[in-house]
Design a protein that fits this description.
The chain is of the alpha+beta class and about 625 residues long. The mean pLDDT is about 90. An eight-stranded antiparallel barrel has the order 1-2-4-7-8-11-12-13. Strands 18-17-20-21-14-15-16-19 form an eight-stranded antiparallel beta sheet, with no helix packed on it. It has four domains: about 1-20 and about 55-225; about 230-360, no CATH class; about 365-500 and about 605-635, Immunoglobulins (Immunoglobulin-like, Sandwich); about 510-580, no CATH class. The longest helix is centred in the last third of the chain and has 15 residues, at about 510-520.
Length: about 625
């Protein structure tokens, strides 16, 4: 069971992602060359939001629809849950949004977020902790940018709410059934983010739109994706001012018991602009191809080649707000579908003269494998377990999964999102910084656990002034046809932290100042408004609050550093410095050291010309466009 099962409820509203943009640039990690007067400047070298707080929060989100058994919930008359508020926790601070690394900005994770449903005069009918996960299926969803600084990308977050506590009396049959069928004190949650504003003069600054769904969770299922039917896009992304018909990746789930296909179109349909109106591209149809095929269907298919499941209702007024893009298709009246839907590909079609154009096609042969947890931060000699799920036509697939090194969206050199021509450290060097078997074996449930181990890096800091090293792990099924369409997000990112020689008695100048100064440079909101992290006297004056923050677990919203990019060894050393004062009762200051600089293997990345506004030249838009440009260059 998942958010694509019933009962489920849909919500819409806004979100705020107040990210800092300074740590997007690799050179700013070098404390010897960092210039605060220049590199922390708004709309200058510091990017479009240098004083970001990293806050991620829901704003004005309400329940706008739902599904209870086979009945669609559209108003409070159908169920009193409609109109209730989905809010942030009222007993802790907001969650945080952070990247893994300046050279891997495509796995932005939400940490420390707690959500609650408020309504019927009660502050929390249920509340739960959002299990940290990165976005997925990032793509250029917005067709037109009314403001040049608009973020035109859209993406999905799918996770679970854990430790869910149910309180009060809702009077809602939907909520009562949702509580009854969910297991392990969890709920499945999925939400689409889009329409994000990056213009500091606009009221939408750091604000975007959100539409999502909450449904039941069942023990043993993946937490961060649905083991269902995965449909891949066959066309080109919208290209204004003359966009063509297009859909991005989306997931379907076939409910054999109810003879229903539930499709999630929430992130796959283009929007006109930041207002979120779905771009009208004519009728769209969900269908099943009547033949097996191991090649992409790039030609028009005829009516007798497909079984039509139904029209996508995206043109109906209010549809997206009431459903978050999720729609059920009843195939119980089609005997061919009843007998064959489990072994034939699902398609998204656009009606054309003489047949249908195929916009989306299920993964070839129905084969699909994905990691449920795909972002790791590992300390030296630490192990991590990647949970892989293999399936065919949505059913668990036992057998081998091939595993090997890949850099995916990181790029060949880790130039991701950097200003054109900038010198950047190489990634994945040394190659033995991480180890894992070249094969994982899926059990009868389709699940395999891949053990990965971080080595003690040699040299200790292969990227010089940036801690640790980045690695990518790819995976595929040996049965997958050669022309399989893959998503560049389907791989695992690993940051292996550098080892350190931590003294028994750390001192400010030798051990602590370089760490805190770098953090203060990259995250200036704290230094400007709370504690100057590069200044001994200021740090000592705030020891109690700093000790608390450095002691908190990584999933706490007040964890320090907020960027989650400090090794356990360095955090332990900072706490040891705080807890072992000198004879004056204060942490030991020591003697100033002359910086010897830090060497790292650098190379100048050949710049690719991209048509971007200055505000877009760094970060996710540039990284995605650069990846696609390099794909085209390497595969003409």
């Amino acid at each position: 069971m998942s958010y694509l099962d019933t009962p489920r409820l849909h919500f819409t509203g806004h979100f705020q992602a107040d990210v800092s943009t300074i740590n997007n640039v690799v050179g700013y990690f070098d404390i010897d060359s960092f210039d605060p007067a220049k590199d922390q400047k708004l709309n200058g070298n510091g990017g479009w939001n240098p004083e970001g707080t990293a806050i991620f929060r829901f704003i004005s989100c309400t329940i706008t629809g739902g599904q209870h058994d086979d009945r669609q919930i559209m108003s409070a008359a159908d169920d009193p849950v409609i109109g209730m508020a989905l809010e942030n926790a009222n007993d802790k601070v907001f969650g945080k949004l952070v990247d893994l690394d300046p050279q891997q900005q495509m796995v932005s994770q939400i940490w420390g977020m707690k959500l609650r449903l408020a309504g019927n005069g009660q502050p929390a009918l249920f509340g739960g902790e959002f299990v940290p996960i990165a976005f997925y299926d990032l793509w250029g969803r917005q067709v037109f940018a009314r403001l040049r600084s608009d973020q035109t990308l859209g993406a999905i977050y799918q996770s679970v709410l854990k430790n869910v506590v149910w309180e009060g009396v809702s009077g809602s049959p939907l909520l009562a059934d949702l509580q009854r069928v969910s297991q392990d004190r969890m709920l499945s949650i999925d939400f689409n983010v889009y329409g994000y504003g990056r213009d500091a003069t606009n009221p939408r600054y750091t604000i975007g739109r959100i539409a999502g769904t909450i449904g039941p969770y069942y023990a043993g299922e993946p937490r961060h994706f649905v083991m269902g039917r995965q449909i891949a896009p066959l066309g080109e992304e919208p290209n204004p001012p003359a966009p063509v018909s297009y859909v991005d990746w989306f997931t379907c789930k076939v409910h054999d018991d109810r003879k229903i296909v539930t499709a999630d179109f929430g992130n796959c349909l283009p929007i006109v602009d930041a207002g979120g109106e779905l771009f009208p591209q004519g009728p769209l149809v969900l269908a099943v191809f009547k033949s097996e095929t191991d090649v992409p269907l790039t030609q028009t298919v005829t009516a007798d080649q497909v079984a039509i499941l139904g029209n996508v209702d995206y043109l109906r007024p209010g549809w997206y707000a009431q459903t978050a893009g999720i729609q059920d298709f009843d195939y119980s009246g089609d005997s061919w579908c009843v007998a064959n839907i489990g072994s034939r590909p699902i398609l998204m079609l656009s009606p054309q003269t003489g047949g249908y154009s195929v916009l989306g096609q299920e993964s070839l042969g129905g084969y699909y494998v994905r990691a449920d947890n795909f972002v790791f931060r590992l300390n030296p000699e630490q192990h991590g377990q990647v949970e892989l799920y293999a399936s065919r036509y949505g059913q668990p697939l036992a057998g081998p999964i091939q595993v090997g090194p890949t850099l995916g969206m990181i790029g060949q050199t880790g130039s991701q999102g950097q200003p054109p021509g900038v010198a950047v450290p190489k990634v994945a060097i040394p190659p033995d910084g991480i180890s894992y078997p070249d094969q994982a074996m899926a059990n009868a449930a389709g699940k395999a656990v891949l053990d990965i181990k971080a080595a003690t890096l040699k040299p200790a800091k292969p990227r010089g002034y940036i801690d640790g090293q980045l690695y990518g792990i790819g995976y595929q099924l040996p049965q997958q046809p050669q022309q399989t369409i893959g998503t560049p997000f389907n791989f695992t990112s690993v940051l292996v932290f550098s080892p350190i020689n931590s003294p028994e008695q750390p001192t400010w100048y030798s051990d602590i100042q370089p760490i805190l100064t770098q953090y203060g440079n990259l995250y200036p909101i704290m230094s400007r408004h709370l504690v100057d992290l590069g200044n001994y006297e200021s740090v000592v004056a705030h020891l109690k609050i700093l000790r608390l923050a450095f002691s908190l677990p990584i999933d706490d919203p007040n964890h320090m550093p907020v960027t989650r990019d400090l090794s356990e060894a360095k955090r332990t050393m900072i706490l040891r410095w705080i807890d072992r004062p000198g004879s004056d009762g204060l942490p030991i200051k020591g003697t100033p050291m002359v910086s010897a600089g830090t060497a790292s293997p650098l190379e100048t990345i050949a710049p690719i010309t991209l048509d971007l506004d200055p505000a877009q030249t760094r970060g996710k838009t540039a990284a995605l466009m650069e990846f696609k440009a390099r794909q085209t260059k390497d595969n003409p």
